[in-house]
Every structure is written in C-alpha cells, then in structure tokens.
Fold these 3 entries.
Entry 1:
Amino acid sequence: MSKKEESEAVQAAAFPAGLEPGTEEEPEDADMKRAAVKQQIELYYYQLTEGCGNSACSNQSCASSGSFSPLSKNDAAVQALELFKSKAPLCSPKPRKVARTTNDRQTTNGVRESISAPVQCTEESHKSNLQGTGKQGDRKPKFLTEAGLQEMLDGCEKNGSFSPVIRTLGEVFSSVEALKHSFCKAEPETQASDAGTEIEKHDRELSEKEIHKEDELTIDVEAVRRSYAALFRHSNSGVENALLNGLISLSPNVELELRYHCAYQQDPRYLNLFVIILENPNLHSPEYLETALPLFCRAMSQLPIKAQARLARFFSSYSAERLRGLVETIQQLITFKVLSGSFSRVHLVNDESAITSAAKVLSIFYIASILAGEVELGDTDEPDASLQRRRHGSSESDEGQERKPTPLQVLEKEVGARVINCRCPLLPFTDFHNEPLNEQLEVDKDYTYYKSQLEDRFSFLNYPFVLTPATKSLALYYDNRVRMFSERRMTVLYSLVQGQVVQPYLKLRVRRDHIIDDALVRLEMISMENPADLKKQLYVEFEGEQGIDEGGVSKEFFQLVVEEIFNADYGMFIYDEQTHMYWFNPSSFETDAQFKLIGIVLGLAIYNNVILDVHFPMVVYRKLMAKKGTFLDLQDSHPVLYQSLKSMLEYEGDVEEDFMATFCVGMSDLFGGSSTHELKENGNNVPVTVDNRQEYVDLYADYILNKSVEKQFNAFRQGFHMVTDESPLEEFFRPEEIELLICGCPDFDFKALEESTDYDGGFTRDSQTVKDFWELVHGFSEDEKKQLLMFATGSDRVPVGGLSKLKLVIARNGPDSDRLPTSHTCFNVLLLPEYSSKDKLKERLLKAITHAKGFGML
C-alpha cells in the first residue's frame, strides 16, 4: 500500500458521521473538531501499525503486544476508527509516527521506514527523553539542546540502539511547544543543561529582552546545524523517519494555530521552529517533497506580515550559499509539483496549494536576498504625489477604486526596503525564476485573478519575482489590451449618448518626409485636449500608401520616429561615442513640450507592444521609477567621469594640493561655450579635501544626473506617465527589465528563430527552398539579419524572451519566378516564391531586405 493510499485511508477515517466535510457548521469549530478527531484516530492507527515500542505491552490493540496479529493498512485504518468510537485505551507513552527500531526497509514510494521489531530501551534513557506529567497525567514533551542531544547520541552509540533518540525526536519534532523552545540561545549555565530540563525552567533563564528583540531570534542556528550533522553522521533511517513523520504531524497543527489562534503574537519564539525545520539538510529529498514540505509551506504561509519580515531580516544574515540552499529547496518543491501535476485550462497551477504556498514562502527569502544585497536608501525623484501613491501599490483600478497593495509590497514596506533600492541582491534575481512554472502558467487566467484581488484566488503576478520577463510582458500585454477595449467601449457609448461620431482609435496620419512634424503636432494636440485618447489603440496611416495597420505599420512608424528624434541635428540628446548611449542635453533649445512628446512616444511604444531601438543608460529607467541618479549610476552613463571621481575617492595623497579642485562644475554647450556651476553656496572658494571629497563626489553626480537635466527629464517623465500611469508596469518590472521591454533582447539567436518558425502554403521544414533560406540566413552578417527582421516583422529588435517568442511564418508564394519576397509585417509572415536555386534565392532576398520601403496592397 502506497503512502498516498495510507494517507487517504487515515483521512477517510478522520471524518466520522457528523464531522464530514461540507457540514453546515462554523468554519473554525469544524476545522478544530476535524483536526482533533483526525489526530486521535492517527494515534490509534499508529498504535495498530507501529506499536508503542514496549515489548511487554499488554494492550491487545497494540502492535507491540505479543498476541497481536498484524493488520493491513486499510484494516488498520478501519480498526482505528472503531477504537476511537469505543474510546479504547491508548498505550502509555502514546504512539507517534516514529519507527520503533533501527532495522531499515524501503517502501514502494521511496520513504524509508523501520521494521516492526522490539527494541531495548532502558528506564534511564527513557527519563532522559521524556519525564513529568501534566494535570491529567499526560507527559509534557521536553525541548532539545545541543549538549543534551549529543549526550543521548553518545549513549545510544555505546548501547548499540538509537531507540531513545528516535523516540525523543518524534516527541519534540511533532510538538510545537517542544520545538520552539529547542536550541535557544541562553546563558552558559543554561547551555550546559540536558534534554531533561523543564520548559518552565528554560523560560525563566531566557531574559524578556532577548525573547522580544525585534530583528533577532532566540534560536542558536550554529547549534542546530551541528546537531543535524551529528544526527545524520550515523546514517540511521529511524532518525530520518522520525524527523519526516514529526514534520507531517507538526505542520497541520502549526497551520491551525497561526490561522485561528494568533500563535506568533502570543509568543515570538514561535519562529524558532521554522528555522529549525528549514535547517534540515535533507529537506530537498524526495521523501519530503511529496508530503512533508508542502504541509510545512502551507503552515509557514500563514505567518503574519510582521513575522515574515522578522524572518526575512533573520535570513538576510545568511551567506549566499546558505540562502541559495533554502531557495533551491523551495524551487525544487514548485518544480516537482508542477511537473507531477495534471494542469489544464480548468485545473490551474494557481489552484495547487503546495505551489502557491511555496511561492509565498519564497517571497521571504527574496526579501532576505534584497536586504543582504547592496541597498541604497536615496531620496525619490518623483514630483507628483499621485505617482508616489502608485509606486506604493495604491493606484486606482479601472473602476476608480483604490487598489490594495500586493503582499510583496506590504512585506517590502514592513522591512523598510524596496526592490528598486537594491542594485545587487545577495542572490541573482534569476535564481527566483521558475521556468517550469512559467511554462505551465495560464497568464490570462492569472491576470484575471490579479485584477479581481479576491482573497480566495491566488495570482503569481502578486509575486512577480518568480516570473520571467517574457511572462510578465505577456501579462502587461493583456493589461494594455483590456484598457484599449475599455476606451473603445466608452467611446462607442459616448457616441450613442451624445449623437456624435468619435474616433475609437488613436489615429495618426503622417507623411514619411515630415513624420516628426506630423506626429508630434498631433500628439501634442491630443495630450492637451483629451489625454485619455492616448490610451486608445494606436492606428497609423502613411499618406499615399495603402497599408492597413494591424501592427506592422505602427512598428515602422515608431522606428522612423526614433531615428529622427535622436538625430544630432535636433540637439535634444548627446551621444557618447564610448558607451554608444544617449543622454539629455542640458543646454538644449527645445521646449519642454518636445521632451514631453518624446516621453509620450516611449510610453505609446510599451502600450502598443512595440520594441524600440533606443539607447539610454540604466539611470534613465531608474529615474522613471522615481529614483534619483547617484555616483554609482555614472559608471554606466558617464564612465570617464566615474573613473576620475573614483580615483579621487581612492587617492591616498594630498587631495587638496594634488587635485586643486573646488566645489564647482564646468559645463560646455553645443556651441563650445563654457559655464561654471557651484555645487554648494560659495563653492568656488571651498577646496576639495580628504574630509569633504565624498560630499563633492555626491554633489557632482547629483548635478550631472539630476539637477542639470531636471527640466528636460521632468517633461520627458510626465509624457511617459501620461500613457503608463494606470499600468502595472512598475509593479511587475525592475529598471533593467523595463529596458528589456522597451529595447528588446540583445541576443540575435537565429537558431532559436529557426526552431520556432512555422510554415504555410505548401512549405515544410524539409522543403529545399526552406533549407536554402536558413543556410543563407545563418551566414548573414548582423546588419543583414537586422534588415531581414525589419523586412519580415517591421522591427529589427528581438522581443523579450528571445527570437523563439517571435513566431515567424514562412509561406510559399507560388512557383519559381522573378518576383521579390514580400511580407505581412503585421502578422510576421514572410512570403517566398519557390525559387529554383539557392543563388537566385540569395540575390532576390538581399535585394528585397536592402531596398524595401513602404506599404502596399498585394
């Protein structure tokens, strides 16, 4: 009988008449009754299958009794129910889910058990594990200390029997009270106590100050690790079984106590048991992944937000290797459950509690990684209070209601550190991505749950760190489309009510030769008259051309606009030859309206799912997310200046005499004229010294990245947020991911494109023309590959997730002829005649991608 069948049998026995699921009763009372009944029946069940371990037991319903006949698992479950109904006596000590001997066997599902054979357990060893009684004669479990456990191990090794250790582990690891008091930090005399010390005495020796200290737990982690090492040094399956079964027994009780009895608020030491369990080096093994770890994650996900924050701070003190081990264990659980489950459009991964609770637990480790990384707490660079509210997750929803912050945002606020403030976490952000989960996730359904904010619906978009940029970009696409349809619907309703014809699209009619004038003038009028129209679906029409915009025409429009905007003749941006990046020109003659319109264009590109060929340093995207530029940002945007200032900070000589610098910045304009700006009052007379050089560097960076371009950038940001202000863009993405969203992936992997391409019109993967095509393409230069992408898709940029996400279609366009290849850029379809030779295909294809321009009707 498998473990799953065994669990189901016990579960069935745990619901006698009157306590069946679905009974109309108060949820809390019903849950507590079911838990109590199930626990009592389990005690009978394990008495029948495992016994109490006493070879002289006289209980006829105990497996340890000499006259007892072994039962099958199903029979034992039925008999356990009968014993419960008749209130039959239980052996003392009460049986636990612990093996009774050190002789091993392997079950069919890979979980190690012990053979039911009697063991010798002396009275002395028994007292060292469990002694004393409660008010009604029940034994009270004792906590573990490193010294006491080691003493027991030494005694067991000497006697050749590990039964006392196994029994003690079973008692402690299945008891909340015992486990949360185990391995606590204490005074030297307390640390010398053994496992037989009373919990009440231990409480007196722990000071109130230590118990309630905000960020530190009372657990001695090093003692826990040494104890686990000592336990597993003996390779005893009974020990492993005791820990496994103890966790299975413990977790439901923890979940109930946290959910209904506010256990953490009553005793902050409650967190100790989570640390002890997570330090188990075998937690990633298959035995735990199937049942024990999912139950534990469900319990841990019930922790209140203050407890989660406290654990995050605690785990932030871990080394990268230790924290990575915890993350990999939870990731293994998610992957195991995703791959072993049968998910569909009806049964979603969102409905699997083991996966969702594991994601919640993973958020604690994610925040711990952020806290342990390079976190800066600089000022925000956001002038608009409404945008500040959006940044903290309280933006208004489509219905005008204020949106609740996500669980991750609440946790960020509790620990006092946001992800945007972390430049380099302890673990790479990619360590938290789970590829199998992303492949299985139904993004449209998950987005629906995200928007509904219903407590009984779990959305992974509330935990975006576990999702890849490609998955999040798809969710953003759905969000943008929903807003477009909403605007279109409102336009139609307005037309019916007002009796006026209103354009349901954001329609731009432009001339190729005057694209900037036509586009920016039209956008300026819309932004002034009715900014809401910017959130309609974009529809572009080139004057004199017949192309119908289904996406491809818009792509070329943005490409042409970007080329013109960053033209040096406009003087709006400065191009750095070394970094190949553009920066705002602080002495530009263009008005704020021009920079505002550029921000609108950038926002429209994201809103309409178009990738642009723009080259901004990362600080631009950080500033768009309300972060001020700092000295570290100069490394990306102004590398020469960064190295100069860094050398000043590291200089060991006389800074004042050797550098001869003052608190001033010299600037030059487009015409070669120079000007001086004082970084502080009377800065021209303040020399830079060893004592104030850090202040000088900070002020210098602040002027270059913030103050000198404040006017231009504020206008640019205002235009960008006119389109994206209601979007979850900043909630889903980090600055580097927003850059990826706007600029696309830099990897031109045409092998991946070949693998993902579909064929139509008579072509197949084995067609000779198709084979010749890919041989030619793989031999193209990078510029020629970009031209091919531009010709076939309307953009030479690689989408988020790589070229495998492009879904190119190559269709046969008739037999051999002298016609050039053509394309439907709106649908990424490349039309190829079945050319008679490879040379002819090359000549025709290169001519098409090099000289093609404009749209027409085929």
Note: Residues 772 and 838 are 6 Å apart (CA to CA).
Entry 2:
Amino acid sequence: MIADGAGEDEEKWLAAGAAAFKQNAFYMQRAIDSNNLKDALKYSAQMLSELRTSKLSPHKYYDLYMRAFDELRKLEIFFMEETRRGCSVIELYELVQHAGNILPRLYLLCTAGSVYIKTKEAPAKEILKDLVEMCRGIQHPLRGLFLRSYLAQISRDKLPDIGSEYEGDADTVTDAVEFVLLNFTEMNKLWVRMQHQGPAREKEKREKERSELRDLVGKNLHVLSQLEGVDLDMYRDTVLPRVLEQIVNCRDEIAQYYLMDCIIQVFPDEYHLQTLDVLLGACPQLQPSVDIMTVLSRLMERLSSYAALNAEVLPYFLQVEAFSKLNNAIGKVIEAQEDMPILSAVTLYSSLLKFTLHVHPDRLDYADQVLGSCIKQLSGKGKIHDTRATKELVTLLSAPLEKYNDVVIALKLTNYPLVLEYLDSENKRVMATVIIRSIMKNKTIIATAEKVEALLELIKGLINDLDEPQGLEVDEDDFEEEQNSVARLIHMLYSDDPEEMFKIISVLKNHFLTGGPKRLKFTIPPLVVSALKLIRRLPEEGDNPFGKEASVSATKIFQFLNQIIEALPNAPSPDLAFRLYLQCAEAANKCDEEPIAYEFFTQAYILYEEEISDSKAQVTALQLIIGTLQRMHVFGVENRDTLTHKATGYSAKLLKKPDQCRAVYACSHLFWLEDHETIQDGERVLRCLKRALKIANSAQQMTSGARGSTGSVTLFIEILNKYLYFFEKGIPQITVESVESMIQLIKNEESLTSDQSAESFFASTLRFMEFQKQKGGAIGDRYEQVKV
C-alpha cells in the first residue's frame, strides 16, 4: 500500500500506487487464467488496497480508480465463469467478505453481488439493499464516493425496473427507486462532508476538488430519470420530495446549486410542469448564497422551449397556473434572500418575462404584472448604477420589443415606463435607441397623439437634457447619431386624419422645444417637413366648408411652423432657420397665402442681415433667396418689388466682385417669368445685365491693377449666356446689337487666349449659337441676325 508520509510528492504516490497496482493485477490475471479462485481473490484484494490512500487528489484518485474498474470487470467475468463451473454463487458472495480490509472487501462484494443478481438465485432488490447498506462501512468522503459510484455503475443495468429481466413481483420499481435514492443520499452526505475537512485556508482548493466530483453524485439522478417505472405519479409522490428533502437538509451551497440544476436538466419537462409548486417551494429554503437566479432562469428556459416545441401543451400551462407559481416563487426567493444583489433580482424577472412572452404571448396583463413585480423589488433603491444590472434591465425592457416587433404593444404596458425610470441617463439613451431601432426595423407607424406622447416618454433620454452626472461628456459622434435616429423616427409618426396628424406634430413640438438647444438643428427640420406634408394633404379652402375656421387649416399650420423655426436662431442654427423659412414661404405660395409668404421671406431676410456674415455663406444664401423668389407668384406688385429690390441690393453688397457680378445677373430672372405676364419687365432685366457687366469690368481692372495682368474673361462669357437666354425669350430690350457687342467685347479681351478654360467656354457658346441657327424656326431666324 502507498505510504502516507507527509511531504511526499503526489506524482510519486500515484506512480508507486500504480506500480503496486499493476503488479497485483498481473498476479490476479495469472490466477484467473489458471482458474485459481483463492489466489484471484487474494491478489485482487491486495490490488484494491491501493485505493485506501488519502494522499491523492480526486483527479489522481480517479486515475487509480479507473485502473481498478477495468480489472474488476475481468474479475466479474471470472466469477461468472466459476458459477457456471459449479461454484455456488452464495458461497462466492460469502467468500469475498473474508478480505482483510473493508474497502477491498466492499469492492469485491459489489462485484460478486453483480454476479449474484445475474444468476437470479435471489431477488435483485434483496442483494441491492444489502450492498447499499454494507457500503456505509466506508465513511471517508473520497473513498466512499468512488465506492458508491462503482456500486451505481455495476447495478445500473440490473435494477428491477419495468421491462427489465430482473423485474420481480409487485412494487419492484419502488425497490429500484429506493436503492438509487438511498445511494444518492449517502453519496451526497459524503460529498458535502468534504467541505468541512481540512484547514480553512484550503477552502478554495476543496471547492475545486468537490466540483470535480459532482458528476458522481449527479449520475444517480440521471439513473432515476431513465427508469421506465418512474412515471409522473411516482416522480411527484416519491422521487422529487425525497431528492428535495436531501438538497434542502444538506445546507451546502455547492450541493444545493448543482443538484437543483440536475433536477431541472435530467427530468422531463412535463414532470416539471406538473410539479412546479413542489420544486419552487424548495427554492426559498436554499442557502442565501446559492445562485438561485441561474437555477430558476434555466427552469424557465426549459419550460419556454417545451412550450415552443409542443403547442398542444400550452393549455396545461394555464391549467397548472405556471406563471402565477413562478411569479410568486421569485417573490418569495427575493424575500428569503434579503441580501440578494439587484442583478440577480432583475435577471429573475427578465427570465420570467421571456417565459411569459413565449408561453403566453397573448396575455399582456401577465407581462405587465412581471414589470410591476420588478418595480416592487426596485422601489426605494433609486437609479441603478451596477453596470451588469442595468444591462440586464435593458434586456428585460427589450424583450417585448423583440417578441412583438411592434412598439405599439409595448406602449400598452402601463409599468413599462416606470421600469425605465430606474435606468441612469446613459442607459436611458441606450434603451431609447433600442426602441427607435425596433420602430424603424419593423416600419411601425404610430398613428395617434396619445401613443406618440407615450412613446416620447419612453425615449426622453434622447429628446431631453436629463440630469447628467458631473463630468459625464457625451461623445459628439454618438450624440449626432442618436439625434439623427430621432429625426428618422419623426417620419414614422403619421396619421391619415389631418386633425390627428396636427395633434401629433403639436406633441412633438412641445417636447422638442423643451429638449435643449443643441438638439433643435436635428429635430426641427423633419418636424417642419411633416408639417409641410400635412399642408399639402389639406383640402382647398373652396372644398373645405369651414375654411380658415376649420380645426386644422393651412394658416394654423403656418403659424405652428413660424413658432418652431423661431427657436433655431437661438440654437444657434441661423443658416438652417433661413432655409426653412424659404421652404415655408414656397409652401405658402402654393396655398396662395401672400401675407404668410411675405412674413416668412421677411424672417429669412432678417436672418440674412443679422446672422449670416461669412462671405461664402452669403453667396449661397443669396442664391437660395433668388431661386425661391423666382418661383413665387403669390405676391402683388408692391410686395414683390420690395423683396426683389432687397435681393438686388444684397447682391451688390457681396464682398467679392465676381460674386457680386453673378448675383446681380441672377437677379435678372426675378423680372421675367414666362408664365406670368405681370412679371415681365425687360427694362429691369437689361438693367441687371448692364450692372453685372459694369461689375465684371471693375473686377477686370482690379485684377489688372493688383497683379499686373488682365483677369479672367469668364464673367463676360457668363453674362453673354444670360443675354442669349433672354434673347431667345424674345425680350425686346435684348437686341441683336447688344449680343453682338458682348461677343466683340469678349473677342477683344487679351486674356481670352491665355485662359484655356475661358476659351473653351466661349467656343462652346458660339457652337450653341450656330446650332440654334441651324434648328430653324422663330429662334433660328432670331439667331440668323446675329453676326459672329
């Protein structure tokens, strides 16, 4: 046998034990080959004595045990052959008990007992009962566990189960169950006892060793689950109560967690469903340190999968009130474990909600009840700052969105926004983004103002400045992405009823205008677009019997637009406000609302004068003014003159001469509109072109004076093209002579040949004129008069 001297290396102990083991196994095999029963028993006992060591870790001991197991298989075959040769199995059963040491004696007894059962000379239940009782002789945890594991392995195919060849009289299944339960109970006691042996400083080491041995204990439950005779009644009346009694009474954290998980994994889902109250009743009795969160979560996952795979069992879930039992059990577990972390409580309710959504998707009241229970547990704790707990809370809140793919259903859950309040500012933004993504992905339309109000409450983390912790800076790129998602969301808030749609955009306005100035440049433009779309859907005033007195009219919407755009210059986003004013002016033009259109233009002009100072921005803004004003037909003579005069005045005040020139000749389009005879003033068109030409000359002279060379002739060619445009329109003031003089002016310019792009531009213009001549007709005749 291995010496137990302290300080020896474990590898040496194993090597020495294995060597002695191998030697005795060799002599045992030689005795078996010569049919010498006495020597076979002698050497097998000596071989098995190596298992008496206390110096090996479970991992190393398992190595030695597997060697013994292999040799005992050979010995069992030898015993069986001996019985066939006339040796009495009863004598053999008694003979092996003469071994000197108890551990080898019991291994041999189990091996002989296996042969005894096979011969059927005695009822299997009697032999099994004797063996399981005799194994009590080994109380050393490690040695006892492996001995009983051997007993479980050799008896597994010899249990008196229904349909087994060893099935005896009535109630034999009960005997089989009793044997496995008794062996399980004793193994669990030995396994738990390991925790309390040795110094406290080695606690972690012992826990690791125990985790390596847990499958030895758990295999008993697997054997029980495989017995044909263990039906629902026996499971409910005998197996489950006995197993749970052992789990609760052992008061060991590791054993309780592992064995509860074993029950859930090895027994059928149908059994769990029918015995929920018994199984859940044990949960509050477990040790506070047991990870009951994971145990219950796995139970609910299994039941959810069971329901998903077998639709016909869904009525049974309602019949046994599975939801109520799980909800009550979770509440009791949290009460029993006063120090349970918030993460565990939230995870439990997250698992319960997923279970509810899978099993009872039509019962929104159940889902709302779960959220209500979660609120009850979180009440008084304020904002959750535990990172993992907040992540789990986001998972819980995301579950209804993922299940229904419709945020409208989530809006029906009254407790949903209350749970959301327990998130901190950062996670409220995360959750708001999840909600918006769900809406966009599923193209969900929110069609009532009431639902929009509820939705905005859910995503207020993105549309309002929340109470941010000191020093928390939101990344600019993240902020822009979040606000762009809100902007996209606005287009999903839509109703076919104009009155309801106006209520929706009014709700949006109220929230956006109080959401902080930095958000306005993202949220106001899509809101303006939604309002302008609504205007286009309104009936003409002639078709609307109430006209401007209607609850929703173009006038009211334009007033609404003016209010929201006014907020933008303070954002500050004056350039954006400027563009929106011009868009609204154009919309008012289509509605024949002259005073409103004029007011919007006035606001745009004020912004141009007071807020837009950059020269490039002024050029762009002026192009927008001229382009929009050209499309306006609603203004009377006086208002139009005022606005066009302002535009031409702005053009002449631009910083750079080329910009002035281009803006002035662009203003010529404001005085000639083909479809409106009232806006056809050739004199003013000519005046604009002459003024542009004068500015171009000035620009040439300034360039010549500053650089000592003539400037580009491009401006003259651009003005020539404007002359040609109005010449084609037949404006009397644009004569053949004026066109010819422009051509001659360009040809006389010394810089034409030195500027390749200008020369190409001019050549293209001349080719165009030649092309128009060849077309014939009235325009062709007109161009024929021009001598190039």
Note: Residues 1-7, 542-547 have pLDDT under 50 and may be disordered.
Entry 3:
Amino acid sequence: MEFIDNLPSMDLMRSEKMTFVQLIIPVESAHRAVSYLGELGLLQFKDLNADKSPFQRTFVNQVKRCGEMSRKIRFFKDQISKAGVSSPSHPSLQPDIELEELEVQLAEHETELIEMNFNSEKLRQSYNELLEFKIVLQKAGGFLDSSKSHTVGEETELSENVHSNNNYSDTASLLEQELQAGPPSHSGVRFVSGIICKSKVLRFERMLFRATRGNMLFNQTPAGEDIMDPISSEWVEKTVFVVFFSGEQARTKILKICEAFGANCYPVPEDMTKQRQISREVLARLSELEATLDAGLRHRNKALSSIGLQLTRWMNLVRREKAVYDTLNMLNFDVTKKCLVGEGWCPIFAKAQIQETLQRATFDSNSQVGIIFHVMDSIESPPTYFRTNCFTSAYQEIVDAYGVASYQEANPAVYTVITFPFLFAVMFGDWGHGICLLLGALVLIAHERKLGSQKLGSFMEMLFGGRYVLLLMSMFSIYCGLIYNEFFSVPFHIFGGSAYKCRDATCSDAYTVGLVKYQDPYPFGVDPSWRGSRSELPFLNSLKMKMSILLGVAQMNLGIILSYFNARFFGSSLDIRHQFVPQMIFLNSLFGYLSLLIVVKWCTGSQADLYHVMIYMFLSPTDDLGENQLFWGQRPLQIILLLSALVAVPWMLFPKPFILRKQHLERFQGRTYGILGTSEADLEVEPDSARQYHEEFNFSEVFVHQMIHSIEFVLGAVSNTASYLRLWALSLAHSELSTVFYEKVLLLAWGYDNIIIRLIGLAVFAFATAFILLMMETLSAFLHALRLHWVEFQNKFYHGDGYKFRPFSFASLIDDED
C-alpha cells in the first residue's frame, strides 16, 4: 500500500485540484482586471446576482451598447456579403481603438451606408422606370403601327358591310366602330399600355376581361430583357401589354386593376414623331443614370472594402467587451459601493498566475488600492477540470458525453485511450480495411493546421475532431486483422507456411476432405488454411466467442479495481470492505472461473463442454464431472466458488446500510443540544464558507439505494458478460460481409473474359467496400464500442455527476456568433 501511495500522480487520472477564491476589486480597475483574467482563462466566476434579471444588473447599459454595436457589425457583414466584396484573410494591423471611439465610428459608417443604400435604391427605381418606359415605347409602338395598317386595309370592306347590315351598330366590335367613325374621339377606342411581371399576366388578363365584360382587346409581348427589382435585387422577367377599350368608366377600372397587380402604366403617343422624340430623351436619361449608378456602386464598394479591413478586429473587440461586462454583472458591490466582490473557482496551480495578473491590472489602471485575492472554503462541489491536448481531448469528450466526472473521481479516459480503439478493432479486424482508415486519419493529421482554421460542416468537424481516435482505431484494426489473417477477407501466408497439408492427392476439395497437421502451429494469428475448410466457421466462432468473454471479464475487473482506487482516494474503507471485495468475489467466482476454464481448455486441448460445466455447477454442483473435468480438484473448487458467490450477495446488500446507520447515531449521540458558538470565527463565517455540512440521514433511503445497487450488479454481471459477445457477433458479420463482396462480386466478375464486366465488378466492389464496410461498419463498430465503455465498463466505478470547469476565457469566444 505504501508503494501505491508513493507512486507519482497522473495528470489525467484525477481532475485538477480546485480552490474557491474571492476577489475584492476597486471599481476603477475592475474592467481591466476582468479583461486580463479573460486573457488568462483560468478563473470560473460564480454568479452572485442569480436572483436578478438581466435588466436589474449594474452594467446593463454597457451590455446594451455592445449588443447595439454587434447589430451594426452584423449589418456591415450582411452588406459586404450581398455586395460580393471580398474581405482580406489577413487584415492589416490597425492601432488599438477604445470602445467609445468604435461606437462613434460604427454609427457614422452605418449612417453613411444607409444613406448610400437609400440613394442607390431611388436611382435604381428611376432607372427601372425609364428602362420599362423604353421597352413599352418599343413594343407598344409596334402594336399601334400594326393596328393602323390593319385599319387602312380593311376600311372598304367594313363600309360595305355596314351599308348591307342595318343592325351593325349593335353587333360590331369596339375597334370596328372606332374605325367606322373615323378619327379617334372622346367616346372612341382608347388604349392603356404598360408592363407587368410575367407570372401575373394570365390572372391580369382574366381580371380585365371580367371587369370590362369582354369589351376590351388585350395584346402582350415579352419585354425581351430582365429588370432588377430594387428591393430584392433579383432579376424579374416582365411582359409588355396594351389594352384597347372604350369609355371613361372602363379606363378607371383598368387603371385600378393595373395598380392592384403592380403593373406600371406608361403613356405612349400615337404619333410616331413624338414616340421617337420621347425615346431619344429616355435613352439620354438612361445613360446618365447608368453613369451615376456605376459611380455610386464604386463608392459604396470602396466604403465596404475599408469596413471589411477592420470588421474582424471590431467584431472581436465588441465580443470581448460584451463578455467582460457580462462577467462584471456577476459581481456584487460591497457596502461602500467602491469595490466589486467576486467569487469563483480556479485550479490550485493557477493561483500564482492569477495573483500576478491582478497585480498587473492594478498597476496598469493606476489604482491606489490593490486587488484583494484570498482563498475561501465552500460546501459546494468544485468543478471538474482535466488538462487535455489535441490527442487526449477526443477521448475525454467520449467520456464526458456519458457524464462529467465528479471532482477528483478516477477518469475512465486514461484507459479509454487504449481500450476503446482496441475493442473497435476486435469487431472491425481486417488489415486491408485498417490501412484504408489509416490513410484517411493520416490525411486529416497532415492537414491539421489548415483544417483547424477553417469552418467545416458538421460531419467533417466530427471526423476532424476524432482524427487521433481514427488513427488508433485503424492501427489496432491492422493488428487484429493480422491476427484474424484477413486482407479484404483474403488470407495471406505472411508469417510462414501453413501448419496443415492435404491428406493425399485427392485433397483438393477442402470442404469434403480434411487436412492433417504436419508442422508447428502458424506463428502469428489464424492459420490461412482454415479459410474455406469445412470447420472454418465453427473454429472461428469458438475462438472469437471465447476471446470476447475473456476481454469482457478483464475489462469489468478493471472497472471494479478502479472503484477500489476511488474508495481508497476518498478514504472510504467501508466501500472497500463491503462493496469492492464482494463484487470481486462474485464476478470472479462465476465468470472469472469461466475465463480460467477457457484458458485451460486452450492450453490442454481438452474436449470438455464448458456449457455443461457451467450449467451443472449450479444445478448439480456435487455430481461427478466425468469427461468434462479439466484439472484435478475442479469439483470442490466449483463448490467453494459457488458458495463464495452466494455469500457475496448479502455481503454487498446488508452490512453497509447498517454500519452507516450506526456511524450516524454515534456521531450525533448526545448532540441534540449543542454548545452555542460564540467565537468571532463562528459569528463571521459566511454562508458559502467552510462550515461543515451534514445531510440528513435516512436509513430507508440508504437501504433501498444499496439494494438497487446490489441487484443491479448481480444481474449486470450476467448481462454485461453476455453483452461483450457483440465483439464476436460484429467481427463475424464484418468478416462474412467482406467475403460475400469478394467472392460474389469481385471474383464472379473476374470470371468473365470481358473487360467491361470486370470494370463494373471492380466498381461495385469498391463502392461496397467504401460505403458499407468502411462507413456503415465503422459507425456500427464505433457505437458498439461506445456502449461497452459507457455501460459495461464505467458503471462499475464511474458516477459521472460532476460539472465542467468553464473559466472566463476570450479563447472560448472565438467560435461563438453573437
């Protein structure tokens, strides 16, 4: 035990020792002190104003100002994105700027940009109107020319029809009546010309027809060019229309319908001379507006480019300032209103750094009063903080996803670094597939710096974060694949020749004729001659099933041993005597003994039936084992182990609750009326200080909890051991899938003497290998390995009811979006 106590402590085994500290900061140096602590990132502040709403806190106005500045920066970012102005990846260094000065600059830039946008929108609207007018003049002028030529050609025919038909005035169309009457008059045919969105034309025409009861002529033609909408900045396809009608009432209806459908109406003179004159004026105005718009756009893009140079710096400054004021809102004013009082947690190793940082803040702010930093006691459980690096952080995240470790609790991530990728490889073992995964992991690691500075999608971000997990998974997969002797399901004679050969010359069919052993066993892994033999599946099933049980029992024993180190670390001898010892006895009396039988059977080559041995160990422990006896003294040993397992169950259940009850009664016996504390230390003690805190003892609750824990362990010992058989099942499934794709796809296609069929077979095999074996099977094995660690391993010792250490740090704000 002294040897264990003298071992050096492991950083990742236990969380960092934390201490509860109090800061008393003068008001004039509060902002600088909190800023410096944010740069250090080793102090987690406690919210002393949790009972107040955000609007009741001291620095609410500063937080609002920062929020408003963030809104303006987001507005600039949106405008830069819409304009397509490229921001430099490495902005030029600019001198530091104060928050008040930045606020003024942002307001000026926003006002200027809003004014430019407004002017640009107005100019664009005028330009669009002139462009539409030009198009309407061109298209509607064509309609009017065609109608005039049509009039001259048919005038004679119309007059003859009028004289031969007395009722013509009742049945003639509006256009024909106008033509008969001669020149247009106030009551004759008129027209309205304009332009409308193409998507609305059909509904627009129907509405006009119904409103005028069919007394109108509707002509339309495509505009020929798209027009930009000044509001949405999208190109819209439009159609030019001309509506011929008669009467003032119809004109009023048509104009109202045009307004309702958003159609723009433009006056087109019938005189061709006037049309040409107006067209020339419109074209001149359009060229002027184009020049004005281009100049305005260049000026706006130049302003946005100058903003983009400093946008990142402004964003970081505002984000930092907002974080500082949010943290200051967690502090309380003291009685004199001249100092801010803050409390929080920090690692013990960081105390010197924090004190040095606070002294620097006092000096830089020219404060006459220094910042007081002192350690306090607290009844609260400290946060959990593990110092990780890029290699261990992914494994720590796997453990934390189940639950954050309690303070100073043994950390499963220390062992997960090795056991997790190894159990994955047991299910995934194929050194061909392992090489593929290894290449992917090496690519991610080689581009680590480049990918780390980019924004990745959710899938790629997850893959990049677990690059070192993928690296070890691939390396262990190659190792297990060499043991299974599988390269895309094909065995190879890597470590020498096979130990088996054919019995005679007719032994070519390994499915019907057995092999004989003629030399020493294959030096490493499975002998390649097992491949294709009639006993291949029984042999590999037996091997992998027994191996799964051995690995499972070993890992569960490791979990129970870690519960011993937890109990020893926290000084709980009760847990060692009445929890660790009976659990070890129960698990190893049954499944430890099964593991022993497996190893003995492998070593001796016995034909004993282990199923029969384990079943009759419970049903008939005194019966003779017969041919199933593996070693001398097996039967009495089985009886002793069975009795030990039966004794271990009440040992786990009963002693601990009664001993806790006895200790509680002894601790508080005769203390119903305690002596009043009158010392100054008792009077001045604070609510969150080191005053000893005792929870109320409830015997029934403790007993029920212990009973649930005992039943869970006993049943879990059986179910968890069976759960490790998933190692065998998934390994078998992976191997069989690889074999099917190899034999039924690749070899089948290669049997044809056709290059196209071979290429198709190769493509199907590559697709199946990449997407089914390398993606789906990898995910499946990953999830099963995750379950084995979370449930079967960690439930033996891991409580996982702590909370993470989240210090105030500017580094954690980098990826946050306001």
Note: The longest helix spans residues 99-164.
